[in-house]
Amino acid sequence: MSHQNAARRNFAAMTNAWSTMTQTLLQSATAANRAAMSAMVPANASNGSDGDTVDASIPSIDHSHLDWQFDRTVDDPDQISVGDAVTFEKVLSEDDVRAFAHVSGDTNRLHLDEEFAADTRFGERIVHGTLVSGLISAALARLPGLTIYLSQDLEFSGPVGIGDRVSARVEIVEDLGNSQYRLETVIRNEDDDATVINGEAVVLIDDIPDA
After folding, report:
1. pLDDT value at position 64?
2. β-pairing, 180-189 with 194-206?
3. Concatenated DSSP letters of 56-108
């Protein structure tokens, strides 16, 4: 019984770690860009260097980490049109990789075992591809309105090393009607100045429910 209780506690801890890392991926954005970031942060907020979060003055980025950055071209969901885009950027850290491995169950040694990974074609541990592509969700969450994934196609063209800064850009390329849009999705490894994922997504953008 004590073994079962310990297992439950370990599972809860892992779940909490993943929830903390991904909380912003599940929130819709309503306004802001990188240049205005400092104006959104309360004067007494932490600098975020240890993973701290802040309650910003704009609801779209409540609880965002200060190290995360994003830009977008439209703030009003009624004004969304072809050509509008969002870019989201963050460092994919050791903690991110460990938390993703625990919660997803993907414990491939390529991501977790330095000695093993050194003998692979990459020569080092790399970030899970699904974790990297998850930044597309972060960018989509910052479109104005409540963004709902309908489909996603991806092509992986390069690895991301642990500790690399990565950006995800989504651009609306077609209005499909009925509040549905087709988007081009691109992820770049900013440290290597290289595109690592190309693809496209279809999303539905609903109105944000009244609080």
Report:
1. 58
2. antiparallel
3. -SSGGGTT-BTT-EEEES---GGG--TT-EEEEEEE--HHHHHHHHHHH----
- As a whole number of angstroms, the longest Cα–Cα distance in the chain is 58
Neighbours of 184 (CB within 10 A): 15
Mean pLDDT score across all residues of the chain: 78
Under the banding of pLDDT at 50, 70 and 90, the label for residue 209 is: confident
Give the separation between CA 144 and CA 155, rounded to whole angstroms.
Answer: 26
Closest listed residue to residue 169, CA positions, set 88, 83, 78, 48: 88
The Cα-based distances of 29 to 42, 83, 120, 161, 166 in angstroms read 18, 18, 40, 28, 20
Q: Residue 202's beta-bridge partner residues?
A: 151, 182
pTM equals 0.70
Instruction: Decide: 147 and 170 in contact? Cβ < 8 Å.
Output: no
